[in-house]
Design brief:
The structure is a single chain. With about 270 residues, the protein is an alpha/beta fold. The protein has a single domain, classed as TIM Barrel, CATH 3.20.20. Helices cover about 35% and strands about 15% of the residues. It has helices at about 40-50, 75-90, 105-110, 125-130, 145-160, 185-195, 205, 215-220, 250-260, and strands at about 10-15, 15-20, 30, 55-60, 90-95, 110-115, 135-140, 165-170, 200, 225-230. An 8-stranded parallel barrel has the order 3-4-5-6-7-8-9-10, surrounded by 7 helices. Helix 1 runs parallel beside helix 9, helix 4 crosses helix 5 and helix 8 (about 215-220) runs parallel beside helix 9 (about 250-260). The mean pLDDT is about 95. Bound molecules: phosphoenolpyruvate and manganese (II) ion. Phosphoenolpyruvate binds next to loops. This is 3-deoxy-7-phosphoheptulonate synthase. Keywords: Transferase. One of its GO terms (molecular function) is transferase activity.
């Protein structure tokens, strides 16, 4: 039902040059905080993750929070702060769209549009990102089957946008006590057999605990991931969202060195 071509690449244009993801290119790394909190933290984090070897800065402006009373993201002003971090470092920017009404503002700064797990089957949003001339990262819904995920990606492809990256971020299983989600690394060989699309793994949301992120990042690389997404915060204890799963810049720097031992990173 879904199109299955040759293992392919998505080329992301960034101020630092074109970054290819997929097709046996070296593994690219997306790093940064869950939420953009203020200019100093996002620019500082961008500098630190760039120095450690990341090609992309992630950071949420619009946050899909379980509680309506939790920090919702700074919205449009955070997009301006991402632009400042991009200007300072040349890193490619990845940020999430939750509402199609924000899409035009988001594509002005984002080099990759993120569709989050909670919107994986928001079909009207998928059609709208599919109409944009910008790569799209589609995260796996927390209870989505592989077929549902691939068909969601297909909505974007069918709308005319061939530049789709799949991101595994952990699924719901019966034990949520020790890890936030169950990171399904078996998607790497499974998806490789089913689809041509590049595959990113997000061990931060996948485990929910910073101590478990490095080993799962290394396992992802060993199992053939095309790209990694890692949450990094300058002071995880004070983060406005997802502090417990965020690495410090120092720990992230060590991780990129550890990854280089396992496989080829950019
Ligand atoms: C995120 O990347 O911060 C995020 C909200 O991810 P997910 O959609 O995977 O929960
Ligand atoms: Mn997060």
């Amino acid at each position: 039902e879904y199109r299955h071509g040759e293992y392919s690449e998505v080329i992301v244009s960034t101020p630092n040059g074109n970054i290819p993801i997929g097709k046996n290119h070296p593994v690219s790394i997306v790093a940064g905080p869950c939420s953009v909190e203020n200019e100093e933290m996002i620019v500082e984090t961008a500098r630190r993750v760039k120095a450690a070897g990341a090609q992309f800065l992630r950071g949420g402006a619009y946050k899909p929070r379980t509680s309506p009373y939790a920090f919702q993201g700074h919205g449009e002003s955070a997009l301006g702060l991402l632009a400042a971090a991009k200007e300072a470092t040349g890193l490619g920017i990845i940020t999430e769209v939750m509402d199609a009404a924000d899409l035009d503002k988001i594509v002005e700064v984002a080099d990759v549009i993120q569709v989050g797990a909670r919107n994986m089957q928001n079909f009207s949003l998928l059609k709208k990102v599919g109409a944009k001339d910008k790569p799209v990262l589609i995260k796996r819904g927390m209870s989505a089957t592989i077929d549902e995920w691939l068909m969601a990606a297909e909505y974007i492809l069918a709308a005319g946008n061939p530049n789709v990256i799949l991101c595994e971020r952990g699924i719901r299983t019966f034990d949520g006590k020790y890890t936030r989600n169950t990171l399904d690394l078996s998607v790497l060989p499974v998806l490789r057999a089913l689809t041509h699309l590049p595959i990113m793994i997000d061990p931060s949301h996948g485990t929910g605990k910073s101590d478990y992120v490095p080993s799962m990042a290394m396992a992802s690389l060993a199992a053939g991931a095309d790209s990694l997404m890692i949450e990094v915060h300058p002071n995880p204890a004070k983060a406005l969202s997802d502090g417990p799963q965020s690495l410090t810049p120092e720990r992230f720097d060590r991780l990129t060195q550890e990854l280089a031992v396992i496989g080829k990173t950019i």
